[in-house]
Write a structure and sequence with these properties.
It is a single chain. The chain is an all-alpha fold and 115 residues long. The protein has helices spanning 2-29, 35-67, 74-102. The chain is built from three helices and no strands. It is rod-shaped. It starts with a helix and ends in a 13-residue tail after the last helix.
Length: 115
């Protein structure tokens, strides 16, 4: 009787290994695949910071171009303000992307490690 139970246990263990080993090895070999989107998001964040800086520079140049006429009007204010709003959006979005990519796995946004 013990012999039959022992054979059954060995057969169950072999079946588990037959299923687990290929799955575990495939998972282990694909661990660096996660780095591709992380690098992409970091590049996107850098591009958003650069784009925001260019829009700020464009707004400053536009302000000084309008300012040299010494006749400011409300449309000049609107043009200047509207050139800075997309820059702020770009900076905020780039900051969110940096937060997302720098978040270590297994932690929440409060920094507590779940155990």
């Amino acid at each position: 009787m013990k012999q039959i139970e022992k054979e059954n246990d060995q057969e169950v263990k072999w079946k588990k290994r037959w299923i687990e080993n290929p799955f575990e090895s495939a998972l282990f070999q694909s661990r660096f695949l996660v780095l591709i989107p992380v690098v992409g998001i970091l590049i996107a964040s850098a591009v958003m910071f650069i784009k925001g800086s260019l829009e700020v520079a464009q707004g400053v140049v536009g302000f000084f171009d309008k300012f040299t006429g010494f006749h400011p009007n409300p449309s000049d204010d609107n043009t200047t303000i509207l050139s800075f709003i997309p820059a702020i959006d770009n900076y905020l979005f780039a900051t969110i992307l940096l937060i997302v990519t720098s978040q270590p796995l297994g932690t929440d946004f409060r920094g507590a490690n779940p155990t």
